[in-house]
Write a structure and sequence with these properties.
By secondary structure, the protein is mainly alpha-helical. The protein has 19 helices and no strands.
């Protein structure tokens, strides 16, 4: 870790540390959101675009699964590394003669964790790619694609599976870069990928007219740019993390720690897949227009969602580093400040988008049915954004501080609760119940998450090395 990043994580004023970590993360994610909006615009501008827009919606469960696998390794490994670096920083500030040996052990462990994270992700990605391509037809049927939607959906998810090893490595590598506090490097990688994606879209969708197939190819090639850049930076610039196969280790502590934290990401995505499938099956009964409207509205609502995500994801290294160093006061201050930032920025951003929702949605489709349904969906999504942001913050804190059970409980609840809410909403309120089901789910989940967080905060454990009686052990 460079000295500047280490100093910021360990000693900089908390607001400065949050700005250093979160602003680049937000910038990178927002550029990605803008790309998603532009990409939907490219597809929407084509003739007979509604089936292709529906294909983008159908593909969300597949992409969620791929992202989840990358984040199991990335979140689990990245938070592990940040805690190790926090412990190393704490030990380097002490004068005990045994500290030097412990510090060396911890720095060696960061290299082992980094290697395990990226190569484990790559191997898992290859397995998923093979299985996905072999079973692509039943998978497309399972996610709800039929009729005119079937062909564009098969084309798009086929490209996703072909590039799965690249995607999972990109997700894992981005987390490893941020584990050292290198937020600007993370931002550069995200922006470079988005720019490459946009260029490839113009080439494949507009110039060559490959439609949804071109969109899938563009996304895959753009992620190769990301993987190349992050791999170069870690290999040449990173001080603590290594990708070298010689450091690859599998042991009980590695598996327990990485997967124990990362499993909440996988469960969260798995339930998202189930809920997305259920939503697709119910929404398609109301026609292609509603399904296409969900796809466009989700991309527009990503703007405030990504701001929240940039805040709580960007601050994860600070949470984990502070916890690893045993600095509970700094940890709680960071959590409180990020919560304030989530509330303020989301209220402003979602409020502005709500005021101009008609104009925003009209940019992406000229189909009156799609626009009419989409405005209702966008309204519901914007209201749920604030609650979702706080839930994400709670899960991030639990992951960073190795509160695996709490993170898992909240991740499971976020998915499980949506199922009965959606089914009951559909039966009782019809299409309106379908549209508002996620909003109701997010409000309840936020309430439960807040309760768990406050209870865990009172009982939160601290690392053994913060206890003077055990510091020399």
């Amino acid at each position: 870790m460079s000295e500047s990043n280490q100093t910021i994580l360990a000693k900089a004023p908390v607001w400065r540390a949050i700005a250093h970590l979160c602003l680049p993360m937000i910038a990178g994610l927002l550029v990605s959101v803008i790309y998603n909006i532009v990409n939907a615009g490219f597809i929407g501008s084509l003739a007979d675009s509604t089936p292709m827009l529906a294909a983008l919606t159908f593909s969300l469960p597949v992409f969620s699964l791929i992202m989840a696998v990358g984040n199991v390794f990335g979140v689990g490994g990245g938070t592990y590394i940040s805690r190790l670096l926090g412990a190393e920083s704490h030990e380097s500030d002490t004068a005990h003669p045994a500290i030097e040996t412990h510090s060396g052990d911890r720095l060696l462990r960061t290299r082992q964790v980094g290697s395990f994270t990226v190569w484990g992700a790559a191997i898992s990605g290859i397995v998923i790619a093979v299985l996905g391509l072999v079973f692509i037809t039943p998978i497309s049927a399972a996610i709800g694609a039929s009729g005119v939607d079937r062909t564009p959906t098969v084309q798009y998810i086929g490209m996703m599976f072909a590039f799965t090893p690249v995607y999972v490595c990109a997700f894992a590598l981005e987390q490893l870069v941020r584990s050292e506090g290198a937020a600007k490097i993370s931002m550069i990688g995200l922006i470079a990928s988005t720019i490459a994606n946009l260029v490839f879209d113009v080439l494949f969708i507009i110039a060559l007219g490959w439609g949804i197939l071109g969109a899938g190819l563009s996304l895959g090639l753009a992620n190769i740019v990301t993987v190349t850049y992050y791999s170069w930076w870690i290999t040449k610039k990173a001080a603590a993390v290594s990708l070298a196969p010689k450091w690859f280790r599998i042991d009980r502590e590695m598996l327990t720690t990485v997967f124990g934290v990362g499993i909440s990401e996988f469960l969260q995505a798995s339930f998202l897949i189930v809920t997305s499938l259920l939503l697709n099956w119910i929404a398609i009964a109301y026609g292609d227009a509603l399904l296409a409207a969900f796809g466009v509205a989700q991309r527009v609502a990503q703007l405030p969602e990504m701001i929240c995500m940039g805040l709580f994801m960007g601050a994860v290294p600070l949470f984990a580093f502070s916890f690893g160093a045993g600095n509970q006061a700094r940890l709680h201050t960071a959590v409180r400040n990020v919560a304030v930032a989530i509330a303020g920025t989301t209220i402003v951003c979602s409020g502005l988008m709500f005021l101009f929702r008609d104009q925003l949605f009209a940019l992406f489709s000229s189909d009156p049915s799609v626009v009419g349904d989409g405005i209702q969906i966008l309204t519901a999504m914007l209201i749920s954004t604030l609650f979702n942001g706080f839930t994400g913050l709670f899960i991030a804190v639990f992951q960073a501080t190795e509160q695996m059970k709490a993170a898992t409980i909240l991740s499971i609840m976020q998915g499980v609760l949506f199922i009965p809410v959606l089914l009951i909403g559909n039966v009782v309120f019809g299409m309106g119940g379908v549209i508002w089901a996620m909003t109701a789910t997010e409000i309840v989940t936020f309430t439960v998450g807040l309760t768990i967080y406050l209870n865990r905060k009172r009982d939160q454990r601290v690392p053994a090395w913060t206890n003077p009686a055990t510091a020399s052990r």
